[in-house]
Amino acid sequence: MSIFTSSLTAQTKVKLYKLSAFGIFPNNGKNTTPLLAAVLKKIRNETAKDETVKIQLQKGRYDFYPEGAGIREYFISNHDQDNPKTVGIELENFKNVILDGRGADLIFHGRMLPIALLGCSNLILKDLQVDFETPQISQVKILENDTLAGSIVFQTAPWVKYTVKDSVFYNKGEGWEMSPVSGIAFEEGTKRIVFNSGDIRVGTKGVSEISPGILKAHHWNNKRLVPGTVIAMRTWDRPAPGIFVHKCKDISLKDITVHYAEGMGLLAQLTENIYMDGFSVRLRGKADPRYFTTQADATHFSGCKGKIVSTNGLYEGMMDDAINIHGTYLKLIKRLDDRTIIGRYMHSQSYGFDWGNIGDTVQFVRSKTMEQFRDRNIIKSISVVQGRGEPIKEFRIEFKEPLDKQLDPAMLDVGIENLSWTPSVVFTHNIVRNNRARGALFSTPKPTLVAYNLFDHTSGSAILLCGDSNGWFESGSCHDLTIRNNRFVNALTSMYQFTNAVISIYPEIPDLKSQKQYFHSGIRIEHNKFEMFDQPILYARSVNGLTFKNNEIRKNKQYPAFHRNKKPILLDKVDNAVVKDNRSDGLINDLLKN
């Protein structure tokens, strides 16, 4: 248990609010949204500053509809910046609060942001589940695949509602309708992603209905989709996460499960200290007829600081990574004088929110080589540069000390990183399995521990250390990272961005040849077990100080080797590397010695 969680639960006096006392009961099908909003308003108005409040639900199903929901403008990192958002449960500026679901199942309808925490401190969210009545992902099963004719017959899952208009398949729900453009293929029996399939084209055009729920795609040709294969057909939309945390401090998420969200399971930004124990993004057990969970990452942290802890979680069936932790590079747009610049958010899914505060420490990087300027600086003043009605994209930043003369966009591309908003990380005793893309991404200079986890059939790299001031603009070089006592089982079954090995240390550096200063350092990979069908175990580029020792590597024949990288360990511009005392068999052992 974290320090701030202990201090809250140890309070001697707790004011208890049972929602049943306000006429809010489970399993009655009523719209809980406006009822809970009214109770939360009452609690906030009558709670003294030093009081601790416990809000208690009952076990059972609570339905949340858009009617009566808060309509808010939120700019959420790594999501679509479309507004407004329809918010089911909004906790704003609450302090010393425990929201205890007691096993409650919160079912949302339409396109909603289920839970938003804004400006809260010392808050515990525990023992509840988040799900949607009708997911925007359309699940279908392949019945027939005529590869000669280039056609496929598929069956929609029982809960999928659809229509066919002008030979185009649309899935639909409460207040929405869309035509999927991509898909992920799962094995019917194991719920693992089909080997070497990646993102597939789906046959939603040229479709005819054979009978209710049975359709034929006349122009869908993919030999990997054998009868029985289950496809999660989707768009690339990600309007909102299941849980949104913004500008909070000391947040604890205990035994929380997100079964589906149209964006990420959890997105936290500009928040200090987040503790997760038993936070999961998972299916409803082996008997769950669904094969997918969230539309994007299970958990994602942007511009946070303090400590991020994730332990005892199960992350499965996501359409992206289990965890991604990073900051955001601003691009240097204009130099106003020797101490003042204009910086801009560059990615289309990352803008609209604050970037820094007075007193924050900042460093600058050369975008083409990802080399850091020697001197750091301190923010003296920062203000938003924007037109009326426009979201936040640019900042005018004045620094305490004079700027290097090369910090000029007329001379070179420069990224600006806020070092004050970087967290230390503990990611332990988690299971990551059967998901698209990668397992875990860490981009922070603070101490990071990745230990005692199981990475089981992640379709891309199990662990990725990146850093990018050119495309995603996700900041953070790693300087103190330990990966130990983990088990990796047949990761890297498909190709995705930056997935050169099971553990891929792959900062995006357009001009690596000209780089003279390393990007990452202080990385230790020890006492792990790799059970792999293919060769690439570790890829690293631009690292000073890398240890790979006392690891066990075993080959199996579950899938044929296919990766273009044929080397167990491939180092590209790495210095002070130690590779020793690893146990292996056959060809891999010989290559490790080289």
Question: What is the element layout, followed by pairings?
Answer:
Blueprint: H1 3-9, E1 14-18, H2 33-46, E2 52-56, E3 60-64, E4 70-72, E5 85-92, E6 95-108, E7 113-118, E8 121-132, E9 138-146, E10 151-156, E11 161-165, E12 168-173, E13 176-178, E14 182-186, E15 207-211, E16 214-217, E17 230-234, E18 243-246, E19 249-258, E20 266-269, E21 272-277, E22 280-281, E23 299-302, E24 305-311, E25 314-316, E26 323-328, E27 330-335, E28 340-344, E29 361-366, E30 371-372, E31 377-385, E32 394-399, E33 414-418, E34 423-428, E35 431-433, E36 440-442, E37 448-451, E38 454-456, E39 463-465, E40 474-475, E41 481-484, E42 487-489, E43 503-505, E44 520-526, E45 529-532, E46 538-549, E47 552-555, E48 569-580, H3 586-593
Parallel strand pairs: 1-2, 2-6, 3-6, 5-7, 6-8, 7-18, 8-19, 18-20, 19-21, 19-22, 20-23, 21-24, 23-26, 24-34, 25-35, 26-36, 34-37, 35-38, 36-39, 37-41, 38-42, 39-43, 41-44, 42-45, 43-46, 44-46, 45-47, 46-48
Antiparallel strand pairs: 4-5, 9-10, 9-17, 10-16, 11-12, 12-13, 14-17, 15-16, 26-40, 27-28, 27-33, 28-32, 29-30, 29-31, 29-33, 31-32
